[in-house]
Design brief:
With 98 residues, the protein is α+β, with helices and mostly antiparallel strands. It has one domain. The chain contains two helices and six strands. The strands form two sheets. The protein has a four-stranded antiparallel sheet, with helices on one face.
Length: 98
């Protein structure tokens, strides 16, 4: 019996707690998994975000759009967690800043 406090998701066959909100969909592109969810965080309720994983490892990053999440998770893998590559690539493509 699962006694986890939060709802769970399955990524690469592994069950994990998902604490940030209600999962709408899990996008899988090769080794990348991006969880599309409706936030339950105070001040950000009812907004859709995208949380990324690489090979079932949580990157601890959420994004505003699926496109930003795809770019962000690739930049995270190849340039590290503090990379600015995704920001500048998004800027080059004309993504709007919030």
């Amino acid at each position: 019996m699962n006694k986890l406090l939060y709802p769970t998701i399955i990524i690469d066959g592994e069950e994990r707690s998902f604490v940030w909100g209600t999962v709408n969909y899990i996008h899988v592109i090769g080794k990348y998994s991006i969880v599309e969810y409706l936030s339950n965080t105070r001040g950000m309720e009812n907004k859709t975000y995208f949380h990324s994983y690489i090979k079932n490892r949580d990157t601890n990053h959420s994004y505003l759009t699926l496109e930003e999440a795809i770019i962000g998770v690739i930049a995270y893998e190849y340039d590290g967690p503090n990379s600015q590559a995704a920001y500048f690539f998004g800027k080059m493509l004309g993504f709007k800043e919030d």
